[in-house]
Amino acid sequence: MDSYERDEIPMLSVNPRPFFGQLEDSSSDNFSSRTRSASMSARMSSAESWRESNFVGHTGPDKNSFVQMSGPLYVRSKPDNSYGDTSESPEKKLQLTHKYSTNEGIIKNDWVQNNNNEKNEHLLRSGQLGMCNDPYCTTCPSYYNYRPPQGKYRRTSDIFDTKFHNVLYGDAKGWAKRFCSFLYSYIPGVMNPHARVIQKWNKFFVISCLISIFIDPLFFFVLAVLEESKCIVMDKAVSTTLVVFRSLTDMIYIFHIFLQFRLAYVAPESRVVGTGVLVDLPSKIALNYVTGFFFIDFFAALPIPQIIILVILPRYLGLSGANYAKNLLRFAILVQYIPRLYRFLPLLVGQSPIGFVFESAWENFVINLLTFVLSGHVVGSCWYLFGLQRVNQCLRDACHHSGMEFCMTFIDCGYSNTERYQSFPTWSNWTSNENATDCFVSSDGPFDYGIYEKAVNLTHHSAMNRYIYSLFWGFQQISTLAGNLEPSYFVWEVLFTMAIIGLGLLLFALLIGNMQNFLQSLGRRRLEMSLRRRDVEQWMSHRRLPQNLRRKVLEAERYNWAATRGVNEEMLMENLPEDVQREIRRHLFKFVEKVRIFKLVDEKEPILDAVYERLKQKTYIKDSEVLYQEGIIDKMVCIVRGKMESIGEDGIVVPLSEGDVCGEELLTWCLEHSSEYRDGKKGRTHGQWLRSNRTARCLTNVEAFILRARDLEEVTSLFPRILRNPRIQGAIRYESPYYRCRAATTIQVAWRYRKKWLDRINSKASLRADSRM
């Protein structure tokens, strides 16, 4: 019986068998139509096929063994028996398994059966890297967060051992080919731009770019001036350090370039109609990147400064052509700096196609501050470079005027190696040349340095001192918009000054404005409070309110702002989903359950949610009268913070504090009248309201939630079922303090009338007895 239940009779398919090309779209449907509950063999990937050499087929009710297949159900377009013979050789079966048992088949079959489509199949194959980890994404379908059940895939160590076994014993010819196939299996597939790993990489890449664009201007400080030798030298230690750091950042940039060829993108044309469609086809991704920013990124990642410093400059140091090599280094850094900034700034301000890189307010504040520091860093470094160029031009002019031999060679000292020039007869004349000495007199010299006067005397051996002063100069000129600069008539100097002014205006308009908005947002509520206070004062002055009333109005406004923090909760709640609103109200209005009648109601009853929805926040200042005698009770007050007192007609004082309710009799009265109206006894006429027989006064500032009488009437009319509960009826009749006090007063009055009546009877009886006597 058990075997009969396990292996049921296969059902023959009515449809003809599909050909091999048709199977990809209909494999799951055809297979489900062939058998009711056939036992299926587990699929094996190519990474696991080497483990098992013997294939054991499962049997049906006729003891016919099923062929174990890990790929499509039909391997030939020729019709044959599905449960065909099992006489094939193990080698042929192994080849068949290797041909069709791939991870692609596993994941694809799962997704085809679950989703009935093959859209974004490359993302689905990538596993965790293809998933969308952005909870607010409107582009990726929800099934990108699919996680396969535990046990379907083996652990990473098993997969690694399997693939390593295939490398050693597979059918690949040659170690190189097998090793490449081994490495290719670990190359990630197409990745989702919203994956958590990609988001973390983007932040790391932005930080790396920020470091790289800080490093590039530092190459200008490799050059320095030796005043005693009247030449320009290079700092070998600084240049080596900068080359190492620049190479690290270039490697990160190159890895980012390779990553772009595997990163899905949102098709721009799909945003016209919908929210966007992810394109995960590798060929389209590559074409989109190559036609987009590939060449800009490729040029920005080229190690041009490293090649110039390590290869070109050592060949020309100490020669007349060294000046041109140094100019080439400066030109390469400046030209390569532009595409780096072009690609980096959109990521910095969060305008990347993959979303915001830095989302918090403090992160944006730090980024804006670092951008301002970067601007001062670039301006100061360029100022130092252009100052060295002006000194170099002055020394070249002095060489032309002096007519000395080899003086053009003396201007370049290489790595501060001046000993080789000692053998030249004109070396001593050059170091003491008057025209060359005047090049280092910035103020009264014959050469007009303009804005580079301070850079001429910046001849310290320490690169740190030169950099710090240049950074200070850059900050100063950006902050003052180059207001204290007087350039010479040199054209490039004038253009550089104009660029500083334009950059300063841009920073004040963008970065400084953003920082100001951030700092103002911290005190925005306080500013709104002061504006509100000024409007209230102007209104009271216009209405000519007395001083004592003005004081109460200002106190009420101040306490209301302190209680609500200036936030309009009703407007805030409107944009939230209804279920979230209900949960928030249930959390905030737990004190409603302390009301005697609502305490008897089940928490799952919708009447509580209806009451929560109609509660309004209200604040009262000290000595405010919430209720007064003979006044209409038009609200029920639930105290959240503060103290009140209730004074009855007889002068008895009842203290009220947090969690207590004032005006509870209104709810009882509404329920009672609603019940009477529905029973057909009598109906409440228009304008008939409950009047208060006590005074409720605030002893301190009170924060409360109120429920209006009109809302209470609506609640009692919407939920009449609660009135049929005997416990609620008992609470209405016997547990309400208002009606208990009213009942006690009625009993006392009746008792007094009865006592008077008894006294009257007793007095008459005594008079009759006396008359008889």
TrEMBL record:
The chain crosses the membrane at residues 204-226, 287-316, 328-345, 365-386, 489-512. It comes from the Eukaryota. CDD domains: CAP_ED. InterPro entries: cNMP-bd_dom, cNMP-bd_dom_sf, RmlC-like_jellyroll. Keywords: Ion channel, Ion transport, Ligand-gated ion channel, Membrane, Transmembrane, Transmembrane helix, Transport. Residues 1-68 are annotated as: Disordered. Residues 28-48 have a biased composition (Low complexity). One of its GO terms (cellular component) is membrane. GO terms for biological process: monoatomic ion transmembrane transport. SUPFAM superfamilies: cAMP-binding domain-like, Voltage-gated potassium channels. This is Probable cyclic nucleotide-gated ion channel 20, chloroplastic isoform X2. The lineage of its organism: Eukaryota, Viridiplantae, Streptophyta, Embryophyta, Tracheophyta.
